[in-house]
Write a structure and sequence with these properties.
Order of helices and strands: HHEEEEEHHEEEEEEEEEEEH
Largest sheet: 6 strands, antiparallel, barrel
Strand order of the largest sheet: 1-10-15-12-11-16
Helix content: 40-55%
Radius of gyration: 43 Å
CATH architecture of the largest domain: Beta Barrel
Shape: elongated
CATH class of the largest domain: Mainly Beta
Number of helices: 5
Number of strands: 16
CATH superfamily of the largest domain: Efflux pump adaptor protein, beta barrel domain
CATH topology of the largest domain: Elongation Factor Tu (Ef-tu), domain 3
Structural class: alpha+beta
Oligomer: single chain
Number of domains: 3
Distance between the termini: 41 Å
Length: about 350
């Protein structure tokens, strides 16, 4: 009877206490298991463009087709690159023959230099001998002058032989450098020929492809919109969960994560945290005077900043549950957090 009276008299109070307990339970669960609907599926996306310029002659895939690593995607007209390679190979071969011919000429000039050296030494000896004999009146001064002239001629011939030998050596070194340059051009031409066919860089899906035979393409950058189509890798999938900063301090790499994709509400995916984003852009500057722009914030209700957390999907089954980049997800993280620490911190903040 007394219990009934107590409940009857304090019905409102008990309801308030019950609501408070439910609130505390929800708060503790929420901070032990941070949850967010601000999440979506991501994957490595590669913009595909041609490596060389030319007209597309063959297209081997279709839009949204699954491919394996190494599968052909498309081919660019190969004939100009084949001819360029043949021309460079012929020039390289000709330069190699030229190098061999110059090497033989070096041997010939070295022999000529050795002969000129011997002749100069002999002429120098005869000139000195004639000069000594002339001083002794053993030979005429005219004979000594002839020997001296022959020495000068031999010296000039020696200097000419040395110069010709140096010229041939320089020509040989220049030929070797040309040969090396042509070899590099041949290697580059082979690479260009190989790159006329573009292959799948990994297992993945072709996306947003609208190319056809006869279309002209050139190497470009995805930053300037020069990509022909996108390639989505399918070996690994992640979910980017944008977590509030008030719940981020206990989120660690390797923690277990449960996820639900809105496209498959009956399936609970398991994952683990692989990376935690460290920075977000909140600083803005004026483009006119480069001074910072400070926004007026609502002092009564300030939303916490969110940081990207990358979650790797572990138990994916692509055949049964195909994944798509951009799918919305709900993420729950098991942080094994210190619940009361968060609670007291929030009370103190309020």
């Amino acid at each position: 009877m007394k219990i009934r009276r107590f409940f009857a008299r304090n019905r409102v109070l008990l309801v308030l206490v019950g609501i408070l307990l439910l609130f505390l339970f929800y708060y503790c669960y929420l901070h032990r298991h941070p949850r967010t609907d601000n999440a979506f599926v991501i994957a490595n996306t590669i913009p595909i463009s041609s490596y060389v310029s030319g007209y597309i002659t063959d297209v081997y895939v279709e839009n949204n087709q699954e491919v394996k690593k190494g599968d052909k995607l498309f081919t660019i007209y190969t004939t100009p690159y084949e001819l360029a390679l043949k021309q460079l190979e012929a020039e390289l071969k000709a330069e190699q023959y030229n190098s061999k011919a110059l090497a033989n000429q070096i041997k010939q000039k070295e022999l000529a230099y050795q002969a000129a050296t011997a002749q100069f030494k002999n002429a120098d000896y005869l000139a000195l001998q004639s000069e000594w004999l002339a001083n002794k009146n053993a030979v005429s001064d005219q004979d000594a002058e002839v020997k001296g002239s022959q020495k000068d001629v031999a010296k000039a011939n020696l200097e000419m032989a040395a110069t010709e030998l140096e010229i041939i050596k320089n020509q040989y070194q220049n030929s070797l450098a040309t040969e090396e340059s042509l070899a590099a051009q041949v290697a580059n031409a082979k690479v260009n020929l190989e790159m006329t066919t573009v292959y799948a860089p990994a297992n993945g899906i072709i996306s947003n492809m609208y190319i056809t035979k006869g279309m002209y393409t050139a190497p470009g950058s995805a930053l300037f919109g020069d990509a022909l189509f996108s390639f989505i890798e399918t070996d690994k999938w992640w979910v980017q969960a944008n977590i509030k900063e008030t719940e981020l301090d206990k989120v660690k790499e390797g923690q277990k994560v449960w996820m639900k994709l809105w496209i498959y509400p009956e399936k609970v995916f398991e994952g683990k945290i692989s990376k935690i984003g460290w920075n977000v852009n909140r600083q803005e500057s004026s483009m006119t005077n480069f001074l910072q722009n400070v926004k007026d914030e609502n002092e009564w209700f300030l939303l916490p900043q969110r940081f990207p957390v990358q979650v790797e999907i572990i138990d994916k089954d692509i055949s049964k549950y195909p994944l798509h980049v951009g799918l919305t997800a709900t993420v729950v993280i098991n942080t094994e957090d210190y619940i009361w620490e968060h609670l007291f911190w929030q009370i103190d903040w309020w």
